[in-house]
Amino acid sequence: MAEPRVSTIDGKLAQEFAIPSHVEEVKDKMTDFAKRHAAEGRRVVVITSGGTKVPLESRTVRFLDNFSSGRRGASSAEYFIDAGYAVIFLHRHRSLYPYTRMLSNINMMDALQFSSAGAASNSGEVVVNQQVLPNITKVLKRYQEVKERRLLLPIEFSVLSEYLHLLRAAAQALSTIGSKAMFYLAAAVSDFYIPASEMPEHKIQSSNGPLQLRLNMVPKILSPLVKDWAPQAFVISFKLETDATILLEKAQRALDTYRHQAVVANVLDSRRGYVMVVTPETQAELILTEDDVKNDVEIEERIVSNLTSAHKKFIDQ
Amino acid sequence: MAEPRVSTIDGKLAQEFAIPSHVEEVKDKMTDFAKRHAAEGRRVVVITSGGTKVPLESRTVRFLDNFSSGRRGASSAEYFIDAGYAVIFLHRHRSLYPYTRMLSNINMMDALQFSSAGAASNSGEVVVNQQVLPNITKVLKRYQEVKERRLLLPIEFSVLSEYLHLLRAAAQALSTIGSKAMFYLAAAVSDFYIPASEMPEHKIQSSNGPLQLRLNMVPKILSPLVKDWAPQAFVISFKLETDATILLEKAQRALDTYRHQAVVANVLDSRRGYVMVVTPETQAELILTEDDVKNDVEIEERIVSNLTSAHKKFIDQ
Fold first, then answer.
1. For testing contact with chain A, the best of B58, B122, B199, B208 (most A CBs within 10 A)
2. What residue stretch is flagged as signal peptide (chains A, B) (predicted)?
């Protein structure tokens, strides 16, 4: 394959966004991971998940953030693995994590207890109360299996600059496996940032009066990702709006602009029960019924099922 | 006691910061908690902990945040309880929590395992691997004891407006126990906000170009807290700076302005090993030695020891 040409965004990334010191090491890890799994016949998906931090000061006390628990990315990772994929999980530090997410809504101390008397040989053991966590056996088994088979490679970011450089590294790493690679860009990435050159070093003093901030637009990384870094991959972006009336148009405009394969479009308030998968030719509405919700069906199962089928067709073409 | 006079900040709070629907209910809970413990001879401390979110849109996708894991507040709560206090823990949703904080740096799934064979009566049990969590027995015991004795009342906030209204409610609730009340204001509260009236409803569109933000200054709530809401309480504020050269002066200026009892002053980079406790008359430096660090001594133990002594003197006067 030809060396990807240096686009203006590559230059901007190098200039205005601090390069994480471990990026080359992570890239090697991702390359090995992708090659190994592709050799074993697996497709590989890079899932981005969680929000990005945008620092307002270089010794950061304050930052801009995006609403995102990482729920969609974490649950999707599980369904991709169930569908036979290997997953690179590029996620915000402390956002929800596959399998472990089941522990996120409780105080874990409330789910632990000392092992009951009677089992004298085990006295002093701390056990999980399975009335508090009824699915723990099933989920822990699956977690251990996935770990044992090394199907999940977790990579963390916190700030926007880490996200941007690590995603580029992931794209370059996965360019080695061509169309077997999928990008599922579910992270809530900031559209705005303060360039390093305009950032104060120290904590902004409130005694100086009201705060004026001027934020630049973050370069649209989807463009070089599709054109230059991983041109053969199957790429899905996400569109979250609060205003449903502009959603479809924005999804279609994104496909026109970036020429990737699909947009998963959703509205903040209804995102757990309704999404639209938009491609240049089709629009599929995925909806959870009341029965689905009762049976703990998650919409990510439907999204992943839709996209893995589309990816298969894409590869076969 | 006379009805607290309506200061301008009360008016501002009502006008510009949405009142949480459960604030009266929480206030009653806090009042009961404080009275019960004071009647049993305990002092009561309100600890605020974690950062505050400042939304940029009313259907919030983006927000400003403050760097804070909630570590200092969560560990201090444990030491206050050890010192005989009852604790109202007013903390940011998902920030570190007393006792449970020991689980925050691991993936909990990595600390769980299926109970070993041999103990047949326990088959199917999920147990904590005490090689991963060597202190779990001690900490779980203490957690259960504190819960049983109802020494810790957790109250959550996420956004700045919740924090402000809940802190006022806490101050009013604790005014019923006079000087037995302490406020330990460790939360990292935003100095800036966007008033509801100037906030766009929908997600800010990046296609409109660079983002200009103008943020107002958050009213200094310490002033009515000390003067009006809980005038007999022992009040400690915190000062975090990145620039060590302005720290002491800023602490002293705060004491001059607000007339409270103490400032815990610290610098971002060294905050885990060094703080200054500044009162109108004294400055005490608290420092962890290398040996302390080796022995897992936490600086919060020293801070709490210093302040509980000072609180005792304050009550006896």
1. B122
2. none
Taking the CB of residue B181, how many other CB atoms lie within 10 A of it? Answer: 26
* Portion of chain B with pLDDT greater than 70, in percent: 96
The answer to whether B156 contacts chain A (CB < 8 Å) is: no
* Spatial contact of A73 and A101, defined as CB atoms under 8 Å apart: no
The partner residue sitting opposite B126, judged by closest CB among A108, A128, A215, is A128
Instruction: Kindly determine whether residue A211 and residue B206, on different chains, have CB atoms separated by under 8 Å.
Output: no
Confidence at B131, pLDDT banded by 50, 70, 90: very high
Are B109 and A118 inside 8 Å of each other by CB?
no
User: Is the ipTM above a cut-off of 0.85?
Assistant: yes
Would B79 be classed as within a structural domain? Answer: yes
Distances (CA, A) of A90 to A156, B68, B143: 6, 23, 34
> Which of B16, B56, B64, B201 should be substituted to probe chain A, the one whose Cβ sees the most A Cβ atoms within 10 Å?
B64
CATH number for the domain including B255? 3.40.50.10300
Count how many domains chain B has: 1
**Amino acid at site B91:** H
The answer to whether residue B123 neighbours chain A at the CB level (below 8 Å) is no
In a domain, A242, yes or no: yes
Non-local (6+) Cβ contacts of B33 within 8 A are B44, B86, B88, B150, B153, B173
Mean pLDDT of the B184-209 span: 83
pLDDT at B120: 47
pTM to 2 decimal places: 0.92
Q: Judging by beta carbons within 10 Å of its beta carbon (0-12, 13-18, 19+), is residue A131 exposed, middle or buried? A: exposed
C-beta atoms of A119 and B118 within 8 A? no
Three-state DSSP at B196 gives helix
Instruction: Please say if the pLDDT value at position B124 is more than 90.
Output: no
The residues that bridge with B236 in the sheet, in sequence order, are: B184, B262
Integer CA distances (angstroms), B156 to A35, B47, B91, B96, in order: 46, 12, 5, 12
Q: Residue A38 is which amino acid?
A: A
Whether the per-residue pLDDT at B105 is higher than 70: the answer is yes
Suggest the residue from B100, B106, B211, B213 to mutate for an interface test with chain A (most A CBs closer than 10 A). B211
Query: Could you tell me which residue, B35 or A3, shows the higher pLDDT?
Result: B35
Residue ranges of B 277-296 with Cβ closer than 8 A to chain A: none
- Burial class (CB within 10 angstroms; exposed 0-12, middle 13-18, buried 19+) of B170: buried
Assess if residue B176 is contained within a domain.
yes
Q: Within an 8 Å CB–CB cutoff, is residue B213 touching chain A?
A: yes
**Chain B residue with the nearest C-alpha to that of A243:** B202
A35 located within any domain? yes
User: What is the extent of the structural domain holding A274?
Assistant: 9-91+159-203+217-316
